[in-house]
Design a protein that fits this description.
Layout (H helix, E strand, L loop, with lengths): L1 H5 L13 H8 L12 H24 L7 H12 L7 H24 L12 H11 L6 H10 L1
Helix pairs in contact: 2-3, 3-5, 5-6
Length: about 150
């Protein structure tokens, strides 16, 4: 628990600019959460996706920390640099997928906290994972990946 409190997200400042480094430091501690959920085959793709997206954003930040002090700076520079391909490229795309992964975690944990469960299998979190997937990720996945997730959970 101390690890989570040590790396919590900072409050959003009045100008709504999120500093990149503290954000990356906070989200870097989230992927191991999926190791606690059981079957690795189900959650390892989500964990790998989060980790990969964090690395992509970190690489852009590390290339010029002063230039990319905030997440907004990254978005603005990439919008200018990539033109019509933006936002479907670079750290912007990684940030979009990272946000979706964080939403998955939020909905999953909220569902568990709210006591939602399968009465026939109360120790399983399938109901919670499916709810999180439906809300946070499903609409961004093709038919094949949707079916794969449903079968895996």
């Amino acid at each position: 628990m101390a690890l989570l409190l040590e790396h919590e997200f900072k409050p959003l400042p009045a100008d709504k600019q999120i500093e990149t480094l503290p954000f990356l430091e906070a989200v870097a501690h989230l992927p191991p959460f999926f190791d606690c959920l059981g079957t690795p085959i189900v959650y390892s793709p989500v964990k790998a996706d989060l980790t990969g997206n964090i690395k992509k954003i970190r690489a852009v930040y590390d290339s010029n920390p002063a230039k990319f002090k905030t997440l907004q700076n990254i978005l603005e520079v990439e919008r200018e640099m990539h033109g019509s391909a933006w936002p479907k490229t670079g750290a912007t795309l990684a940030l979009m997928w990272l946000k979706r992964g964080l939403k998955f975690m939020l909905v999953l944990l909220q569902s568990i906290s709210d006591g939602e469960r399968d009465e026939e299998h109360p120790n399983l979190i399938r109901v919670n994972a499916m709810k999180a997937y439906e809300i946070a990720l499903k609409k961004y996945h093709g038919w094949m990946l949707q079916k794969l997730f449903t079968v895996s959970v």
